[in-house]
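INTERNAL AUDIT FORM
Audit reference: QA-55
Scope: verify that the stored structure record matches its stored sequence.
Auditor: D.O.
Record contents follow.
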Amino acid sequence: MGIIQEKLAQILGEAAVTRAIISKPSSKSSEYKKIDIQAKEKSYQISKYTQKQVFHENLSEKDLPKRIEELINELSFRQMNLWTADNEFIFLLSKKGELSLKKRTLNEAEKCQQCSSDSTSHNRQKNYIINEGQQVAPLVDMGVFTKDGKVVKAMYDKFRQINRFLEILDDEIDSAKLDHLNVIDFGCGKSYLTFVVYYYLTEIKGIKADIIGLDLKADVIKKCNQAAAKYGYDHLHFELGDINGYKAPFDVDMVITLHACDTATDFALYNAVQWNAKMIFSVPCCQHELNKKIQSDDLSILTRYGIIKERFAALATDAIRGNLLEYAGYKTQLLEFIDFAHTPKNILIRAVKRGAAPKSTREKMLGEVNRLMEEFNTDQTLYNLLVNDNDSTIGK
């Protein structure tokens, strides 16, 4: 047993370790910049930070002393700050490998601060794919992160939105086990999420990704291409073009469409189906089409009041889209993207290709759409594109 392991075992014999931070790598070229260890309910989580990524592992309390000594020695760190409920222990290793250990009693304010800090840090990090401390250049330029990787307080909601979107992607990426993806992002706008998706796929998941962002604003496209070059994102490109009728230069695996206004979402979904895309992730916006058209004698209670009509029309639009994607052979879910308190536009459509839908499923999905549209004397763009114009190729 090494000296560090021995000292840690003594500390753990007297009190539980709440947190430890291993820092000061001996070389500037070290792969890992710091290691953050936090107590969980029945174990410890180790987060190892590189310049761009973070790697996690979990272990029990009995294995903690040995693993910490391995990390310090193997990765050549020179300092560790370790906290219990009442004390801070500071381990310092000299260049000659000599260990010094200092113990400091926490005052009451520090005890409260440490408890709050540990709880907040753990709650923020435990479900996030991108964590504080990671060096993600686009997020710094977008004002989400500071230069040292801290979340800007005013941008914390945006930070959560980004991670929520990545979590929804991550569920499917992991199960698909892909090593390459061709992605189209329709209506990319300023593309903060396009850059993050590229970072997530290539840096975190290790997937080769070719991504094209499409938008109608020439100045936006120019700036986005300049940014992609600045970050060294060689397989991320932006093009000027319309969602309707766009011709993809490759076989499309994934289509992303965020806040494409009104029927632009329908054209994006239609193109995705035509390309036989494996995955579709869409956050619709401004569903005006049905709001302008719907009327009903028997259910006029849903169209009488403006705010009720607007919300019902938006929900009905996305329900129709979900059914039509099922009809087209996709396993489809409508998920909450972000909390309703932040925006009513909080539904994300996640659709994953599963092959030709059974005839009974196609009939059921389409029948429900037809009955809804008949009741409210309306039609809908995606329905017209998929069913009226191209029924022979859908779901086959």
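Auditor finding: record pair retrieved intact. Confidence is low (pLDDT under 50) at residues 119-126, 339-343.
Action required: none
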